[in-house]
Amino acid sequence: MPEKVSESPVQFEYEKQKRKEEMKQQVITFALMIIFTIIAFAMVASGLDKLFVIPILLVLAGIQVGFQLYYFMHMSHKGHELPAMMFYGGAFAAFLTILALAALVWW
Question: Which parts of the chain span the membrane according to its record (predicted)?
Fold first, then answer.
């Protein structure tokens, strides 16, 4: 069994600080997602006009998807460029498909 190479105290502190900062970002993001969910439920429960509520719900949902990808699925980290590119390519293809179908319906 290979022995683990001991890292320097400076490297250890750097890694510790980096993990601490990442955990802080995840906790803040989680709190924001809970707040966005509460806002969405409150808007629907309040009985506001659908033309006002639906676009705001879609924006809140999009923000939460971004938070999920970047903070909880670690898409912003090194080494995740290919999965990120594949995801964005798929999202772009889906957008073009929906746009094309909407254009066909309206013409």
Answer: 27-45, 51-73, 85-106
Q: Which of 99, 73, 98 has the alpha carbon at shortest distance from 86? A: 73
Residues 6+ apart with CB under 8 A from 47: none
Residue entry with tokens 């290979």: 2
Q: What angle do CA 95, 101, 103 make, to 5 degrees?
A: 100
3-class SS at 78? Answer: coil
Separation CA 95–CA 97 (nearest Å): 5
Q: Tokens 């912003």 — which residue? A: 76
**Sorting pLDDT into bands at 50, 70 and 90, what band is 3?**
low
Q: Would you tell me how many other CB atoms lie within 10 Å of the CB of residue 52?
A: 10
C-alpha radius of gyration, the chain, whole number: 21
Beta carbons within 8 Å of 39's beta carbon, 6+ residues apart: 60
Helix (DSSP H) and strand (DSSP E) numbers for the chain: 3, 0
At 4 the pLDDT is: 60
